[in-house]
Structures are given as structure tokens and as C-alpha cells.
């Protein structure tokens, strides 16, 4: 017999591990929600043109990794490979930037798709939580986002992560650097593909992972030496604000990141327990993106953190999240009448906001108690004919093992009291 399998490069989230993913999404978004970021949700696909223009024709994401499709109506769509272009598109379409309340601060959480070579920490379907602050140029905003990501990772108990920071310059100084870098790179001994990259996106060559390429890059011109005074001052201010907040970072002048649209502040969060897929999140300022997709000038900054790799980082550090049991009360009926009555009690508990579950399927006491144990419930309610004859149910404290008879009519109230 053949069975279905998840497509290559994907995996399913199933209990109990799925609870960790939910907790990670929650932990990453909590500091954002407390800092004025509103929730935004956009479609899982967009017109392919949005990414071609917004992410960049010279990026791996657009040239190699995008899932594209033609609809029956002839539209060219792409499954979203990242969040920023979509979020900015949606903000522009809803005129959020015209409400006179800049920056527009938004957070999102969802699925992203890239046709990559699957390996540990690199999948074709993955999950990100992201934040964008649109329409304001202020180093405090760049600092805020980095501080909030740091806070999120710390709240999860992660310690072995580092923050890499760089400035990519702006439309004044970057072109000058770009040219200097190009003429340096053209003299190196590089393969055809890399030579092409020099002409399209030379900064990406700095990001090359191969040792023989890196060796040749030792004397490459440094962007730092080309930053204009405005970019320098801006970057120093971001650094000072991070330092004042007690957030440690490392200056990394080779950090260019894969997307075309970044300007000035760029950063990456790396985790040392993850091997080669070490980036758990990244982001930066993208002052030119709005105009690139047809909008007005809206300097913005944002990040996206990978949920899958964050979970792997927790596992690498051996961090066990303190996830409270989802069920507080488990009801075990013995017999037909008990089934009806206890099902009623469970409904009553749930309506009172107490998490309750029920031994469905008329199972025997032993199997049902096993399920009660597995559910993590603090209390079990057991009742059979004899209990009902006396008007009681048996209430068992699963922690102490103590069991006592409680009047049926008071069972829900008693549990509510005990569970506080
Ligand atoms: P990498 O250099 O590892 O390819 P990236 O620069 O392409 O990462 P971003 O586009 O910045 O990644 O996405 C932000 C985060 O999303 C990454 O730091 C990572 O945690 C996660 N991510 C990106 N691509 C994948 C993937 N294919 N599988 C799992 N997580 C991913
Ligand atoms: Mg990538």
C-alpha cells in the first residue's frame, strides 16, 4: 500500500512539538504587540511582479527560489517568498501611510515558500514572524526593532545568539562604493556565475561562502570607508542606542544580506548551535523599496525571524519551554448515564473558561485513566452508577493522588475554586 508523504522540503507540525511553534510565534510577537505594532495579514501569493521589483531581479530568491504559477485566467502569481514586499504593498493599498500617523508599525506571522535545496534548517515551506515600521527615518526606530527581537529571543531563554550589524549606505554613497568594489572584483580569479554577479549585484559577492573566494576578498574595499557623513552619523546613533539599552552586537562589515532593497542599517541574528544554517533572523532599513514598487518615498525598517530555526535553536541549547498543560480537568465516565452527565459537566466547565476534556468512545477505566494522565490534567473526574446513586462524583488530584467525593451539583464550582 502506498501512503502520501509531505512534499519534499516540507514537514508537518504535529502535537506535542507544534505547541512549541505556537509558543515561539507568541513569544516573538508579544514584545511587538506591546510596542505599538498592529497585526497585518496578506495573501499567501502575490503578483509575481511585486517580488521581481520589490525583492530584486538579481537575488537568489527571485531568480532561483520563487514558486511561480500561471492561473487559469492567465495571471502570473508567486507564492510569497518573504513578507516585506507584501506588507508594504498592503499598507500602500490601504493608504495606512496617509492616516497621518507615521511610522505605520505592523507585525505579521505566516508561511513562506522558497524552492531551495532542503537540508537541516532549510525548507521549502517555513514560517516567519516579522515586523515593519513604515514611513519614518529615525535611528531610534532601527534600534527599537533590534531591541525587540533581542527581547523576544531572551524571553524564550535563548542565549547563544549574536547580533551582527552593518550599514549599507544610501543612494548617495553606495553607488560610489559599488563601483570601487566592482573594479576590485573584476581583477579576481572567479567563475562565470560570480563574474556575472559582479555586474548585477557586486555586494553579494562579499557574502560568498566559499573559502577560496573569501581569501581573495581580504583586501576588498570596505563599505565603511565610503559611507557618507549622514550615513555614518545615523549608524553611530543606532549603535549608541543599542549600547545604552545593553544589547550586545558585533560590527560585521561583510554583512550584506540577500535582498536588494536594504539601505543603511542591516542586521542578522545568528545562533551558534545551528551549523551552517545559522541565521535565525534578519532585517534592516529599506528606504527605497516603496518607490521601487510604485509608492511614494517611505523610508522604512523591519525584520523577519524564522520560527523553524528558532525552534531548532531552542533544541540546540536544550531549552525546554514552560508550556502549561492544555487540559485542566479530564472526565472519565463509567457507564451510559455517567457519560451523559459528565459530558454535561465538561460543557459547563468549558463555558466557565476551564480547559476540560473527556474520555470519548466508552473506554474502560484503565485506558481512560491513561489518557487522563497523558492529557496533563491536574484533576480527573470519575463517576459511575454507584456514585450517582449517592449524588456524587469522584474528584482526583493527579498531583497528590488524593481522591474525594464531591456532590455532583457542586463539581464545577469546586473545580473552579481549586483551579483558582
Ligand atoms: P539564509 O542566508 O539562511 O538563506 P536568508 O537571508 O535567505 O537566510 P531571510 O530572507 O532574511 O533569510 O529570512 C529571515 C529568516 O527566515 C532567516 O533568518 C531564517 O531564519 C528564515 N528562513 C529563510 N529561509 C528559510 C528556509 N528556506 N527554511 C527555513 N527558514 C528560513
Ligand atoms: Mg536564503
The quaternary structure here is: single chain
What hetero molecules are bound to the protein chains?
adenosine-5'-triphosphate, magnesium ion
Percent helix range: 25-40%
CATH class (first level) name of the largest domain:
Alpha Beta
How many beta-strand runs?
16
Word description of this protein:
There is one protein chain. This protein is an alpha+beta fold. It folds into 2 domains: 17-173 and 227-317, BirA Bifunctional Protein, domain 2, CATH 3.30.930; 329-418, Rossmann fold. The protein is built from 15 helices and 16 strands. It has helices at 17-33, 48-54, 60-63, 84-93, 139-155, 174-186, 192-200, 211-216, 229-244, 289-292, 307-317, 336-351, 365-375, 385-389, 411-418, and strands spanning 38-39, 45-47, 68-70, 76-79, 104-113, 125-134, 161-167, 250-251, 263-271, 279-285, 300-306, 329-333, 356-358, 379-383, 392-397, 403-407. It has an 8-stranded mixed beta sheet with strand order 1-5-6-11-10-9-7-8, sandwiched between helices. A 5-stranded mixed beta sheet has the order 13-12-14-15-16, with helices on both faces. A hairpin with a 5-residue loop joins β15 (392-397) and β16 (403-407). Adenosine-5'-triphosphate (ATP) is lined by residues 82, 114, 116, 121-123, 126, 128, 257-258, 277, 279-282, 304, 306, 308-309.
Topology:
Elements: H1 17-33, E1 38-39, E2 45-47, H2 48-54, H3 60-63, E3 68-70, E4 76-79, H4 84-93, E5 104-113, E6 125-134, H5 139-155, E7 161-167, H6 174-186, H7 192-200, H8 211-216, H9 229-244, E8 250-251, E9 263-271, E10 279-285, H10 289-292, E11 300-306, H11 307-317, E12 329-333, H12 336-351, E13 356-358, H13 365-375, E14 379-383, H14 385-389, E15 392-397, E16 403-407, H15 411-418
Parallel strand pairs: 1-5, 7-8, 12-13, 12-14
Antiparallel strand pairs: 2-4, 3-4, 5-6, 6-11, 7-9, 9-10, 10-11, 14-15, 15-16
Bound molecules: adenosine-5'-triphosphate and magnesium ion.
Adenosine-5'-triphosphate (ATP) is lined by residues 82, 114, 116, 121-123, 126, 128, 257-258, 277, 279-282, 304, 306, 308-309.
